[in-house]
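Supplementary notes for students who missed Thursday's class. We covered one full example, reproduced here. Read the sequence, then the structure, then the short commentary at the end.
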Amino acid sequence: MILYTVLSPEEVLEGMDKPRTFLEVEVEGVKMTLEPISNQEARLVRIFSTDPRDYLDPLLQPGSTIRFSPVRIPAMTGMEKK
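Structure (token representation):
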């Protein structure tokens, strides 16, 4: 790949060696990959859908910010601490 830029290669590749964390979630029936930004926000990386309308939804564009709040999942029956 040829990259035409006035920036030095160090500036372009800065941060590429750091590991990134991704979450795969389903929101309103649309599976997506998110990259956490903070405890309550994540950046949308990609969506997985067979419905073309999902790709036309401006709220589901890659790079958009998704706000969420963690949900505590109740313990499964029979798995409680004794």
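Commentary. The chain has a mean pLDDT of 86. Residues 52-56 form the longest helix (5 residues). If anything here is unclear, bring it to office hours.
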